[in-house]
Specification:
The structure is a homodimer. The first copy, chain A, is α/β, with parallel strands linked by helices and about 450 residues long. The first copy, chain A, has 3 domains: about 140 residues, NAD(P)-binding Rossmann-like Domain (Rossmann fold), CATH 3.40.50.720; about 140 residues, Succinyl-CoA synthetase domains (Rossmann fold); about 150 residues, Succinyl-CoA synthetase domains (Rossmann fold). Chain A is built from 16 helices and 19 strands. The first copy, chain A, has a 7-stranded mixed beta sheet, with helices on both faces. A 5-stranded parallel beta sheet of chain A has the order 2-1-5-6-7, sandwiched between helices. In chain A, strands 15, 16, 17, 18 and 19 form a 5-stranded parallel beta sheet that branches. In chain A, helix 11 links the parallel strand 15 and strand 16. In chain A, helix 3 packs parallel to helix 4 and helix 7 runs parallel beside helix 9. Chains A and B meet through helix 5, helix 8, helix 11, helix 15 and helix 16 of A and helix 5, helix 8, helix 11, helix 15 and helix 16 of B.
Amino acid sequence: MMKEFFDPVGVAVVGASREPGKLGHEILRNIIDAGYKGGLYPINPKSPDVLGLKCYTSVKEIPSQVDLAVIVVPSRFVPSVIADCGVKGVKAAIIISGGFRETGEAGAQIEKQLMDNAKTAGVRIIGPNCQGVNSTTSGLCATWPLVKVKGPISVASQSGTVVAAIGCWAENDGIGVSKLVALGNKCDVDEIELLEYFGRDDETKVIGLYIEGTRDGRKFIETAKRITKQKPVVVLKGGRTEKGIVAAQSHTKSMAGLDRVFDAAFKRAGIIRASSIDEMYDACKALSALPLPAGANVLIITSSGGSGILATDACEELGLNVVDLPVNIGEDLKQKLPPECIIRNPLDLTGSATSQLYDSVLSTILPSDTVNSAIVIIGDPMPGITEVVEKHLGGGKPIIPVMLGGGKAEDEEFAKMASRKIAAYRSPSRGAQALASLFKYANVSRA
Amino acid sequence: MMKEFFDPVGVAVVGASREPGKLGHEILRNIIDAGYKGGLYPINPKSPDVLGLKCYTSVKEIPSQVDLAVIVVPSRFVPSVIADCGVKGVKAAIIISGGFRETGEAGAQIEKQLMDNAKTAGVRIIGPNCQGVNSTTSGLCATWPLVKVKGPISVASQSGTVVAAIGCWAENDGIGVSKLVALGNKCDVDEIELLEYFGRDDETKVIGLYIEGTRDGRKFIETAKRITKQKPVVVLKGGRTEKGIVAAQSHTKSMAGLDRVFDAAFKRAGIIRASSIDEMYDACKALSALPLPAGANVLIITSSGGSGILATDACEELGLNVVDLPVNIGEDLKQKLPPECIIRNPLDLTGSATSQLYDSVLSTILPSDTVNSAIVIIGDPMPGITEVVEKHLGGGKPIIPVMLGGGKAEDEEFAKMASRKIAAYRSPSRGAQALASLFKYANVSRA
């Protein structure tokens, strides 16, 4: 029943506009630019066409099948638009317009009426008062900004901006997204139903949620508990502090409970909790691109002594174990590496580092049972390092490349890694955090 | 006496090479590309010229004044090069070559000999085994990668990569740097002397240090205590955890003590402590670009409800106060803002946000004594917002713009802010962290 939101046969944009800058224009253009292949029908009684597409005066007039309506007209018109959708057989509506419950009693009345009409008409609703939906699979970018790169991450969010930020970052990093949903007022579809749907969805490998509260805490946790057995769920919760909770209540009228109650429940449900958008994104990226480590033991290889130490601190603080190297491996490496290399963990290749040396170290240590994962820090331009990382990722253990201090050459190498869907990071602490999220989920999936 | 490192009359590059990729080539090229205006003399007995510059066989042969030698020849040659420097009257040498104390007893002997020669010859040394020095003021990029944007941040670091990363980020953000120093083995000049020098240096407004330990803890803390009264000092210390400390000992033979001892001493000295390179950079950036807040009270304005809540959580957790708005200001804003705006702190302009509305809110609230600073979150493309932020920065209170979820339009606006030296951030948590560092230093400078 949720399929019509993400892979609809025919889409109507109600309130499509000829005027650039208006939502009704930008959203229609993003759907076109994202490459949606189905029938696309702007609804605007005052224009004959918008962006080269013939306009209709109502969804009822569209001659072909329409599964989804994307609605941007003022709130007072929305209940009747929903009724029209019912007549036409439209099964799903994304209501982007604001002016509902969030604005007070009058808006709440309109929201109630629209839900009554939706129930009668059998139309499912995402929103109202939301930033829309992006389904890269079907090229349906019914939101903004335009994000097109297909990938394994799906996110549902009570904040349109949080989900937009993650979409933008995932696009820049070449990781991409599958489905992005801004929940808005959640008058019908909520995070629990989407969690359930993303759990079943084969294209979604990692689920991200930004929530400020949930209508049914028990059901949320029970659903999450079931889903996290199959795929990772990363949750960022707004409203950790007293003032944050009050602000959340203003924002989405959420029943935001005490943070430590959420924290305990999240742990029980196997949820990976993030404390910032950056951390949420970093975790989703790692979980979508990398295998899980079989244990806490991490090998750190670096060309930068300082960065290796900072990564060691971060790993140890996050519950990872920067394990001592077995004696025989140390002896072996002494034969293979230049004398200036510091053979311990973190293993410092020093300024002598080359891709061949990284390759040599990874070949020697990574197959050992002592080590479950590697952080590979590259502090200088290092031609060929992408290929080395790619090769050793084939061994089945997670490798986190961290690149910094390399100027333009680094940017180019980072883009190269992005083009090969390698999850690379820009600082030792962020790389360590990402690895820690893999380790946390490894424990969940084994439990 | 340190001036010759940063603003030398004449520079010799000992070990200059014709071969791209070699350090002796890259460093000479970076000095040329950074625009150094003084005499530049490659030393290479085997080539008549390198990169269009006439070569000499020894520094002694250079016919003009040379204050600084940048040395990249193998370690065994370095003591005699230093002796030659003494003969020529060269006052400072940056020794980039490795192969000294860090490699064992034989290297330690060479290092001792080079220091003996340096003392006899009256040559000051940065390094050996270091990534060099960048002084944007004199266009002297005797390091890599090439970083040219002039700015108010100076950094000394026991890790070349840490200082290179900060240089790259500061260049990308338009903030720029003044002096970057990779300390290496610190056989002569150390972080204490540089802290002292940066403290006196008019071009340095903010000092960043990455250290793993210090030879004279008491002197370091006493020096810092004096300097932090005049300008902020941000310190990142490698070796917080037991394993990090052991790794630091391998890296720079540092006497890294217990972390909580450092932590207490840093606090006493008024040092802003960072826990990651990102945090160190974010703090330096804010401290270099923004005025200090007179108190903890912060106003959060946002177009994104969720981001406002996340910023509220982050601020409150960091000791800032997301203060309640005075009743009269609230009443005033009710007249000025559309009804859907949520008038509280965080103040949510919702999807209706425009630059004019941000301007209106900042004009109404920022002059009030209730508020000491503002975080301005922009969750959508917002034409004109740079000008609004710039205008209100004129009021003397710090304003932290945070931009996310805006796609290409956001990147353009971010670049515009960078071109005007406005310190903008890409996530609520990083913006809040940056503001917290301003607040911490405000307390230090008032103490």
